[in-house]
């Protein structure tokens, strides 16, 4: 299985696929993300991930059906004194189980880092559950390093990472 393509989600059909994949992501978690307003987030896609300072990427693999099997998004997190984008946040990285170990997660992160850099961000942050060992290895491969807590996540076990762009 190999990555066939990655596209930025923009059409209504693509955003429905984003919603499907994000719902699968939320269902796969051991924790409830209701405190993040995920229902409202899904109802207003692309919402906080909209251009010019955000993006949502969908990924496909060969050997799987015609539907996308991976998603990741980026949104603004911090701005400079003049309002310029400074720090962004990676959100909702998810690859369906049938497409894991295909390289799609790496490809989605590579493309997202490129897009964020092109938007003018200086760094990217993310948070994750410590039980997501494969994801944490992926983040380390892409240069993410531990950083200080930067949000109000109520789960004390959440880990925080950052990398320069």
Walk me through this protein's architecture:
The chain has 165 residues and is an alpha+beta fold. It has one domain (3-164): Gcn5-related N-acetyltransferase (GNAT) (Aminopeptidase, 3-Layer(aba) Sandwich). 28% of the residues lie in helices and 29% in strands. A 7-stranded mixed beta sheet has the order 1-2-3-4-5-7-6, sandwiched between helices. The two termini are 29 Å apart. The mean pLDDT is 93.
Question: Quick recap of the structure?
Answer:
The chain is of the alpha+beta class. 28% of the residues lie in helices and 29% in strands. It starts with a strand and ends with a strand.
Q: Which characteristics define this entry?
A:
165 residues; alpha+beta; Aminopeptidase; 7-stranded mixed beta sheet; globular
List the uncertain runs.
none
User: Largest sheet, if any?
Assistant: 7 strands, mixed
Tell me the number of structural domains.
1
Structural class: alpha+beta
CATH H-level name... which superfamily?
Gcn5-related N-acetyltransferase (GNAT)
Chain-wise SSE layout:
Layout lengths: L2 E6 L3 H17 L9 H6 L11 E7 L8 E10 L5 E11 L8 H15 L4 E6 L4 H9 L3 E2 L12 E6 L1
Parallel strand pairs: 4-5
Antiparallel strand pairs: 1-2, 2-3, 3-4, 5-7, 6-7
């Amino acid at each position: 299985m190999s990555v066939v393509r990655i596209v930025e989600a923009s059409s209504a059909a693509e955003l429905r696929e984003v919603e499907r994949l994000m719902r699968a992501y939320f269902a796969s978690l051991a924790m409830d993300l209701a405190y993040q307003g995920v229902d409202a987030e899904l109802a207003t896609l692309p919402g906080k991930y909209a251009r010019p300072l955000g993006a949502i990427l969908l990924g496909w693999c060969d050997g799987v059906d015609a539907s996308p099997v991976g998603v990741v998004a980026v949104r603004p997190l911090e701005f400079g004194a003049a309002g310029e984008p400074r720090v962004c946040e990676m959100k909702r990285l998810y690859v369906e189980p049938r497409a894991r170990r295909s390289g799609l997660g790496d490809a989605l992160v590579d493309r997202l880092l490129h897009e964020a850099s092109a938007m003018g961000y200086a760094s990217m942050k993310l948070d994750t559950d410590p039980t997501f060992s494969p994801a944490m290895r992926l983040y380390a491969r892409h240069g993410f390093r531990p950083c200080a807590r930067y949000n109000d996540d109520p789960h004390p076990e959440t880990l925080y990472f950052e990398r320069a762009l």
